Amino acid sequence: MRFLLRRMGFYLFTAWAAITLNFFIPRLLPGDPVQSLINKYHGRLSTDAIDSLRVLFGLNTHTTVWQDYLTYWGNLLHGDFGISFTYFPTPVAEVMVQSLPWTLMLVGISTILGFVLGTLAGVGLGWRRGTWLDSLLPVANFFSAIPYFWLGLIAIAIFGVALPIFPASGGYDGGLLPSFSLEFIGSAIYHAALPALTIVLSSVAGWILGMRNMMVTVSSEDYVTVAQAKGLPERRVMFGYAARNAVLPSISGFALSLGFIVGGTLVTEMVFSYPGIGYVLFQAIGSKDYPLMQGVFLIITLSVLVANMVADFAYAFLDPRTRQEA
Amino acid sequence: MTLTTEVGRSAVSASHRQPVLSIRNLSVDYGYDNNAVHALHDVSLTLHAGEVLGLAGESGCGKSTLAYAATRLLPPPGVVTGGEVLFTSSRDGHGGDLLTMTDAQLRAQRWKDTAIVFQGSMNSLNPVYTIGRQLMDGITAHSPRGFREQARVRALELLEMVGIPKDRLGSYPHQLSGGMRQRVMIAMALALEPEVVIMDEPTTALDVVMQRQIVEQIMSLKNELGFSVIFITHDVSLLLELADRIAIMYAGKIVEDASADEVYRMPRHPYTAGLLHSFPPLHGPRRELGGIPGFPPDLMKLPTGCNFHPRCAHAFEACSVIEPPLGPTSFESAEPFRSVACLLHDPTVNPGPVPVELSVRPLLVRPPSKETV
Description:
The complex is a heterodimer.
Chain A: H1 2-28, H2 33-40, H3 47-56, H4 65-77, H5 92-127, H6 137-145, H7 148-162, H8 182-219, H9 222-229, H10 234-246, H11 248-263, H12 266-271, H13 277-286, H14 290-318
Helix pairs in contact in A: 1-14, 5-8, 5-11, 5-14, 6-8, 7-8, 8-10, 9-10, 11-14, 13-14
Chain B: H1 6-15, E1 19-30, E2 37-48, E3 52-56, H2 63-70, E4 78-88, E5 95-97, H3 103-109, E6 114-117, H4 131-141, H5 148-161, H6 178-189, E7 196-200, H7 208-225, E8 228-233, H8 236-242, E9 245-250, E10 253-259, H9 260-265, H10 270-276, E11 327-328, E12 339-340, H11 368-372
Parallel strand pairs in B: 3-8, 3-9, 6-7, 7-8
Antiparallel strand pairs in B: 1-2, 1-4, 4-5, 9-10, 10-12, 11-12
């Protein structure tokens, strides 16, 4: 229990540091948001409009950085991230609430699927090393070496254009309104198939290789031989003794990849024009939408932290040796 | 610890002649092609009921390979190329050839009939399971369903038997000392009261005090439960003390097989004599220590004839040509239960007498019929 509290404390501190950095970094950049709005409308804004924008963004009052910092925290705790320029005048929080579920669903499910499939395949390949199954390894190597956006482009070229089985872009059929109807969910799954396939294919190979190599290493450990000598059923030796220990290094890698679900799929979402948070970030960067960028970065940072925390706790749960009080 | 007297021990080995595990002509290669290393060559060895059989030899002579091959646990690229390993229960006579059993038969037989304590207690326990769980899973795998509670009781009993507090059942291996882990391994091996326990250097990783305690514990458990032991070690002096019979291995072959007392007082093979001269005796007159010149041979390119002849002080011409079989000594009538693989003891080849140091006469010449009286 003390272990968990200590880790919690550590993560709270890290979160505070990340949020504070998130406050200061944009303020170190030159220019201000009104200037970028003026640029966006190519100077066709009246001086009245510019003045009211200054008031709207709170740039007319002269406050200290410290006051700003406190206000920033207050707004954050109320879920107020400011107003997006790109989707003006939608609040940033609303933009993120709309795009986050798409990313979480698509990338979350395909990342987990990739990990589970890859790890199971790795267990099998490692356990039966030296058989014909080893000839699958070069294939896995090939897929792990391919950048996933390139794989995505190929997938679009084949399944979206040459054989139009799957839609090449978008998150759902344009003629539908987002709702929890069966038709809409079906359409969403249909649209997610290609990007999901791309993510699973490109991530599964890495998990297979890592797990297979660990299985080979662990299989020659004495405790696996002891388990065999005890006459335990083969499945129990394979999963309870070999795989149970071999999976430990993969767990931390998996947690990190969970953290990158939110931010790391920018390219996939760009390639497939998928309405997720990566695509929003791409738009925000394109239009110098600082509030939106700040909001997205904060979400990415926090999700990496949460994923790390989950990994820590999962590790402590799976490996008794890390539970020791240091 | 007082072991049985030396004369008594040889009597035990002679009177209990019921074999529980007999290894016949076992050969093992590492590798599959023509470059394969012949790690074991035609090894035959018999373990009798209630006996402690010591297996000694230098590193790399095939001791552990023998243990793994005989239990079919040999990791690849090890291949058993011939021979059989017959288990015969001394309780109800069941058994069979371990090398030809189906996987299901083998799994059922393992741990129930033959258990193993491995070299290096540090890695023999799964680091992510409690020792209780590991003690119990071996028991439940060989028991009817719903045996969990009995398995727990048995696990507690086993821990107590090897002198570990019962509340350690929930401990993880990293929370135990090396000696405790080795005790857990011994307790685990005895969980199903096997008839044969193979111990592969069970005390190698421990300090001498712990080594002594573990060995004493093994011997008292053996007397209590009556299992037979194959004790593998490179520590000949330890074997002289605890084994009933000792087999000496050299380069994948057994070169001498005799009672512990006979090996100590009357070695018949020049290699055995060399081993005995490489450590100081605790009792008796001082003598000069000698080593064995040279190095163990490379198993990839074994010498022709007798494997030991390039290092042997008594080698003569025939030694580099004829491969000596494991056969009776030149004092066969006086010592019928021992064998040696040395041409010096073959009157058809050796023109001269057996060298003095290898021909110490038996002190007590007693035919086997007398011993059983």
